[in-house]
What we know:
- By secondary structure, the chain is mainly alpha-helical.
- The chain has 13 helices and four strands.
- The protein has helices at 63-70, 94-97, 99-127, 131-152, 162-188, 191-197, 201-211, 219-238, 244-266, 273-312, 314-339, 344-366, 372-404; strands spanning 27-31, 34-38, 49-51, 54-56.
- The strands form two sheets. It has a two-stranded antiparallel ribbon with strand order 1-2. It has a two-stranded antiparallel ribbon with strand order 3-4.
- Helix 4 crosses helix 11 (314-339) and helix 12 packs antiparallel against helix 13.
- It is globular and about 65 Å long.
Amino acid sequence: MESRVLSRAGTFSPLSHFRKLPSREPTAIFYNSSPVTAKATGSVADGGNLVWGRQLRPALISPALKKVLLQPCHATAAEGNDSAGEAKVAPAGFFSKYPALVTGFFFFTWYFLNVIFNILNKKIYNYFPYPYFVSVIHLAVGVVYCLISWTVGLPKRAPIDSNLLKLLVPVAFCHALGHVTSNVSFAAVAVSFTHTVKALEPFFNAAASQFILGQSIPVTLWLSLAPVVIGVSMASLTELSFNWLGFISAMISNISFTYRSIYSKKAMTGMDSTNIYAYISIIALIVCLPPAIILEGPTLLKHGFNDAIAKVGLVKFVTDLFWVGMFYHLYNQVATNTLERVAPLTHAVGNVLKRVFVIGFSIVIFGNKISTQTGIGTAIAIAGVAMYSLIKAKLEEEKRQAKAA
C-alpha cells in the first residue's frame, strides 16, 4: 500500500481508532515533598492524527513514564522516606529521556523501509513484469506475518463479526485496487514519475471531501493545490519514461485511495490498528487473487516463471519476492507506529519528505535521466503538496482548539 496509507488518505497505514478516554479526577503527586495537582490527559481527539480517516493518539510520553508521574505518592517518614521527606521516583527509561531521538529513529526506519521496498520492487519488475502477481505476493507475505503474530499472541487476535466485516470490505476493496494499480504504474514507468503523479492524491481528497462528503474546503487549500497540478503536468509532458498505462494506473490509484479514505471513516471501530491492518490485508488478498489468476495466470504458467528463473535463478527469484513482501508490510506497520507518536503538522511534513526521499533515491539507484522541465515540475508538485499539508494541518489544529475552548 502506498505510504499515504499512513496519512489522511492513504500511505497503507492502518485504521486505528481509540475511544474517548473517560475523564479522571486530579491526582495528587509529590515533587520535592510538595503536593502538586496533575490532571489526566484529555480525550484522544486532542491533538490526534488521522490515518485513513482514523484518529490516532500521539504518544507524547511513554506509558511507563505516565505510570510514574500519575501514580499517587505518599511521602511520609513511616513509609521509609529519607529525612527530607522526599518521595523516591524510579528513573525514567530511554524512551522517556530522549523522545525526540526515538521519534527521529521511527521516521528514519519508515523512510528506509519504504525506499528499500520501492527499489526492490522496481528491480523485480525489470526481470519479472507481472504487477498483479507481485501485488498478491506483497499482501500474501504480510498476511502470513500477521497469522504468525496472532499464533504467538503478539498481538492477540481481536474477534470480528459480520457487521464489522461489512464495514471493512469496501475499505479493503479500495485498498486492493489502489495497491494493484500503483504496482502496474511502477512496472510501466519510472518510480520517480509514479510518485510524482501520486502527488496529486491531495487534490482528489479535497475534491471528494467537497463534492461527495459535502465538506467545505477553504479557498486557501484549493489555491495550495494549484502548484501540485501544474507541477505534475510539467513533469508528465517531458518525462522520458512516460506512457499512458503508467500515468492512468497512477491516477486510478489516487482515486482508489481517496475512496478508501472515505469508506474508512464509516468503518471506525475500537479494534486496535494492528488487527485492523491484518483483516484489511486478508480481505485485500482475496480481492487481488482473481484478476492475477485471470490476467496473468496463463502467461505465468507458460513462460513467466521460467523466464524469471532463467534470468536470476530460483533462489534469488523466491528470495526477492519474499523480501519485497516483507518490506511492504513492515514499512506500512512502522509508518503507523511513527504517525501515532507525532502531531498532525509533523505528520504532514513527514509524508512530504518521504516522497522526496523515494523520488531522489530512485533516480540515483536506477540512473533515470530526467529533463530539466521534469525536475522543475516535480519540485513544484512536491512544494505544493507540502504547502497543502501544512495549511490543512494548521486548520485541523485550529478546529481542535476551538472545540476544546
